[in-house]
Specification:
The complex is a heterodimer of chains A (266) and B (268).
Chain A lengths: L5 H19 L3 H28 L2 E2 L2 E2 H35 L2 H6 L4 H6 L8 H16 L6 H31 L6 H9 L11 H9 L3 H12 L5 H28 L6
Antiparallel strand pairs in A: 1-2
Chain B lengths: L2 H22 L1 H9 L3 H13 L9 H17 L4 H11 L2 H6 L4 H30 L9 H27 L7 H15 L11 H7 L3 H5 L1 H7 L8 H29 L6
Helix pairs in contact in B: 1-7, 2-7, 3-4, 4-7, 4-12, 5-8, 8-9, 8-12, 8-13
The chains are: A mainly alpha (266), B mainly alpha (268).
Chain lengths: 266, 268
């Protein structure tokens, strides 16, 4: 007998997070090593911006503070993708190939939830801290954003993150059908880099693509704009629509992929 | 039978095997090559900067040429030996390679060379698209630049391979060899000229970056192909590269030997 509903889902999420955190924290020396790696990576990501704004006050109409906020959001998104989305959904592809995915399907909880939160890569918590440091520092370099703008930033960032999760889930669903392209998700990681700079740096067409096709700009450009104090309320609507579309679409793809799944052992 | 001729005699065979392997896994190869598209995003960024005027003698065409060259040279100097070697050491798969009458690193080097034509084939649609979008970036380098580029890219390829193999060999000693290479790679992206031409850095930094190994791994051949390196600086740039190849070779040799002495062959 399986109970369903939001409460059950929350219980499952809490149990998964607890288990994956304690599994990830057992290698403490590695964890500290990851701190160094995370810091160096964050600095290397910031370097192009220092160069750019050493030469110019504005690029494509965006000042240094807002561009740094975009980069902070990018680091945040990258930490989330590397720390949560990628380790989990990457494991699905391996499970499909080896047949271990059968065991996940037998468990009395929603399979999408199970595969999405089974493991965390705790080393990336340093990336998260570095991202927050960049965001706080850049925010303090200008007028403090008011509460509505902070809320808008959080809302668009959350919508963007959910939309990106949808992209990844869709790619994984595709891997059920074409096991050969299991490294497709590394291409997604490479595409994520487009979120490093404000979308206005790119041409109008590319900027639109980065909002509605590969929605990394929703998670980086929009929250940064809000924190810089000139976000529009339409941003909240756009972000919500994109997130809803990607979540619903990827859920359908996932369902369709499950329906086609025949197990490696049969 | 002495060893060197033998190693050279079997080289064509390894290359043929490597080639068939790469053809068999071509879909995977396409994805790997296409993951190195950061230069395109960087081009967009610097293009937006240069709209307002030249920087350090670079106009918009120069920067387009520079990042098109970066895209190409990144592939021509690419390999995966750091990850492969670390993985094989951890898994004990290296044992089987050590039994063969051929140095595993030489086989891996030939393997990496065999991948180069494929990398170019896969990259070419991207380069052609870029050239169609910005036809002004097509400029023939001078003969001096072109011939220096050929030598330089071979040196950069070799240096990248040696550095990666050294980091891979660290797996003999530590669990986190991949992580150590990650730190190096992060520094490399900035110091090699990958994210910006070195000319855009503050003068004091450039002076140091010219002598560090990173530029020799990417920036030097890129500057030659893009034609932004003055003709009288070509020889010195090549000499710096050659010196780093020698240093890297000696370091790798020392690390490899010390590592083999420790190698307990997990799973053996």
């Amino acid at each position: 007998m399986t109970t369903t509903g939001p409460r059950r889902a929350l219980q499952v999420v809490a149990a998964l997070l607890r288990a994956s955190l304690s599994a990830g924290m057992q290698y403490r020396a590695d964890f500290l090593f990851d701190a160094v790696t995370g810091a160096v990576r964050a600095l290397a990501t910031l370097a192009p911006l220092w160069l750019v704004y050493g030469l110019r006050d504005e690029v494509a109409g965006v000042g240094e503070r807002e561009a740094t906020l975009v980069l902070g959001c990018f680091l945040l998104v990258a930490a989330l993708v590397h720390g949560v989305i990628e380790p989990n959904l990457g494991a699905v592809v391996e499970g499909v190939r080896s047949g271990a995915f059968d065991l996940t399907l037998l468990k009395p909880a929603d399979a999408q939830l199970l595969v999405s939160l089974r493991t965390l890569a705790p080393g990336h918590v340093w990336d998260l801290l570095a991202a927050l440091a960049v965001l706080v520092d850049a925010t303090r370099r200008g007028p403090t954003p008011d509460l509505p703008h902070i809320a808008l930033a959080l809302w668009t960032a959350a919508c963007g993150a959910l939309a990106l999760y949808g992209v990844w889930l869709g790619a994984i669903a595709a891997a059920f059908v074409f096991v050969r392209v299991d490294n497709l998700r590394f291409l997604l990681l490479a595409g994520l880099d487009a979120g490093r700079w404000p979308a206005r740096v790119f041409s109008r067409g590319v900027a639109t693509l980065l909002t509605v096709v590969f929605p990394v700009a929703v998670a980086t450009t929009l929250p940064a704009r809000a924190l810089a104090g000139h976000g529009a309320w339409t941003d909240a609507v756009v972000a919500a629509a994109v997130a809803a579309a990607f979540l619903a679409g990827s859920r359908r793809l996932w369902r369709a992929a499950l329906a086609r799944y025949t197990s490696a052992s049969s | 039978m002495n060893r060197l001729p033998h190693a050279l005699r079997v080289t064509p065979t390894i290359a043929r095997v490597a080639w068939s392997d790469l053809v068999a896994y071509r879909a995977e190869m396409v994805v790997w090559v296409l993951t190195a598209i950061l230069p395109l995003f960087l081009l967009a960024l610097w293009d937006a900067v240069l709209v307002d005027g030249d920087v350090a003698g670079f106009g918009r065409d120069d920067v387009a040429r520079y990042f098109a060259a970066t895209l190409l040279v990144r592939q021509l100097t690419g390999n995966w030996i750091a990850w492969e070697l670390a993985y094989e050491i951890r898994q004990g798969q290296l044992s089987a390679r050590l039994l063969r009458p051929l140095h595993p690193l030489w086989a891996a080097y030939v393997w990496a060379v065999a991948a180069l034509p494929w990398r170019i084939v896969i990259l070419s649609p991207l380069l052609i698209a870029l050239a169609l979008a910005r036809p002004e970036l097509l400029a023939w380098p001078s003969t001096a630049h072109a011939s220096a580029f050929v030598v330089s890219v071979a040196l950069a390829f070799t240096l990248s391979f040696l550095v990666q193999a050294t980091f891979g060999s660290l797996a003999f000693f530590i669990d986190k060899a991949d992580g150590a290479f990650g730190v190096w790679f992060a520094v490399w992206t900035v110091a090699s000229g990958y994210v910006a031409p070195l000319a855009f850095f503050p003068a004091s930094v450039v002076a140091a970056l010219r002598w560090l190994p990173f530029r020799s791994m990417l920036g030097t051949p890129v500057e030659m192909l893009a034609g932004v390196l003055p003709k009288d600086a070509l020889g010195m740039a090549l000499a710096v590269q050659a010196a780093w190849v020698l240093v890297a070779l000696m370091v790798l040799r020392a690390v490899w030997r010390a590592g083999l002495a420790r190698y307990g062959a997990f799973g053996a």
